[in-house]
TrEMBL record:
This is DNA-directed RNA polymerase III subunit RPC3. Signal peptide: none annotated. Component of the RNA polymerase III (Pol III) complex consisting of 17 subunits. GO terms for molecular function: single-stranded DNA binding. Belongs to the RNA polymerase beta chain family. One of its GO terms (cellular component) is RNA polymerase III complex. It comes from the Eukaryota. Transmembrane segments: none annotated. InterPro entries: RPC3, WH-like_DNA-bd_sf.
Amino acid sequence: MAQALLRLCCYIIRDDFGPIIEEVAKVLLQKGRLPLTRECLFVLIQHNLVYWSETREGSRNSIHYSIDQNEVLARVNFGIYIKYANEWVRHRGADEITYYMLLNGKGTFNGFIEDRNISKRTNKYKELKMTFKKIVESRYLTPVRITDSKSAQDKASEAEQRELAKVTNFIPTKKQMAEVKAKLAAVTDDDSVATGSKRKINFDSIERPTKQQKGDDPIDENQYYRVNYEKFNAKSRNRVSESIY
């Protein structure tokens, strides 16, 4: 990683979380995937900055951690997300919800309501629930899945191992390896946000929720969500383009 980019990422982490967590982030940025066990890693995981995975190494299991520099750099745009949330979502209270999610890394609607100390019997609660529903439907918030804790590299490796296990119990041949890689490359995530960028390969094997019937409440108040940076960034780019022309 370039030194200028390293310093910028470290500055962002230090400004948001303090010097101790900055040191852990700096090591991960410099060294890559490492087996670390410090408490502050939980803070970085909570805020979607660090991925972790458990791997078998000989006779024991090891947990490795890695940091995503793009997640770190996205934090410089948080002010823009909050400032324009109401305008882009077209619902009052979207900025409050966005702020809460960014502050906590991820959260639930119930957690947001409890944090704001809002009674479920009030009109304010009904208004915010409608806003939350709109944010989710517009994909400014995205559900958190178990596999989100793993990096794309780890997901790809696990998916490759699963596919190879289906075709052979021995050391795979070059042809088998090539066929598996081609198969995985052809699998795209239909739920990716349309931002003009190439769709990501879906390495998750989790079943997606069934489509709900019309009239059903689509919001699970205890489901964890996080801010969809790609969606906000796309709107931000469009805003800049419109201002130029």
